[in-house]
Amino acid sequence: MEFKLPKREQFSNKGTFGKVLNIAGSEYYTGAAYLSSISALKMGCGYVALSSSPKVLNTISLRSSDIVFIPIADVKKRIADFDVVSIGCGLSTDLSVSILFKSILESLAEYPKTVIIDADGLNLLSKMKSDVKFPQNLIITPHPKEASRLLKVDMNDIIEKPMQYAKALTEKYHCTTVLKMHSTVVCSVEQEIYVNDTGNSALAKAGSGDVLTGMIAGLCAQKMSNFDAARLGVYLHGRTGEIASGMLSEYSVLASDLLKYIHLSIIDYLQIDEEND
């Protein structure tokens, strides 16, 4: 395989496999915070901290004992402790959140490690002035509608010419772009293109993108390059959908079901990799 899963050192601890800070969730979108946090852990990173409002953290604490919690009021002073920051899943676009997002983005401008912006983070980004300083190692993960807001172009144009507009997003934000479509397009900072060939309609469910964000974050935490982590994350996300739909049908797969099958996509990938060596 062109891009390999990170090796698992046996003499290791949770710090060996990286720490993800996930700034996500709001009162009506607690599921996004949960899905994006657990999927990062399922990809092998050693530690995930979720930062959100007290109400969201209380809700998620009832669902999982695997996630560490940081009150949103304390998040800016903790950013430097982490190897990856993901922001946006289920965040909402309320005025108070918009102010908070801008403040956090300013704090991330000098952050040298990977920052992933998804979902409502992208919607908030699309409303910001052009003089905003972006993180140095940025990944964005828009679907066509979010991409149309970021580029101020018609969504149908993006659907018709995804590679062209993935490159345009990369150029505008100096980032790795994951343009989520039937055949997702990943564009590197150097304008290298990868078109994914895994996945099916099972992934066309609310929350599926949150799972993908977590998967990419988990790989970045293990020191994969942004482009390789994005490519492998998209590939495995698609395979997870294929495997899950083989058990549940393309109709009945939920985003939460994907969490139960990520390990099988990893096992499948490792077997293919071993056969090719």
How would you portray this structure in words?
It is a single chain. By secondary structure, this protein is α/β, with parallel strands linked by helices. The chain has a single domain, classed as 3-Layer(aba) Sandwich (UDP-N-acetylmuramoyl-L-alanine:D-glutamate ligase), CATH 3.40.1190. It contains ten helices and nine strands. It has a nine-stranded mixed β-sheet with strand order 3-2-1-4-5-6-7-8-9, with helices on both faces. Helix 3 links the parallel strand 4 (84-87) and strand 5 (114-117). Helix 8 crosses helix 9 (226-248) and helix 9 packs across helix 10. The longest helix is centred in the C-terminal third of the chain and has 23 residues, at 226-248. The N and C termini lie close together (8 Å).
The secondary structure category is alpha/beta
CATH class: Alpha Beta
End-to-end C-alpha gap: 8 Å
H-E string: EHEHEEHEHEHHHEEEHHH
As a percent range, the share of helical residues equals: 40-55%
What count of helical segments does DSSP give?
10
Radius of gyration, taken over Cα atoms and rounded to an integer in Å: 17 Å
Q: What's the number of extended β-strand segments? A: 9
- CATH fold name, please? UDP-N-acetylmuramoyl-L-alanine:D-glutamate ligase
Report the average pLDDT across residues: 96
Question: Which architecture name does CATH use?
Answer: 3-Layer(aba) Sandwich
Q: Determine the CATH superfamily.
A: Ribokinase
Q: Could you list the spans in which at least 5 consecutive residues all have pLDDT below 50?
A: none
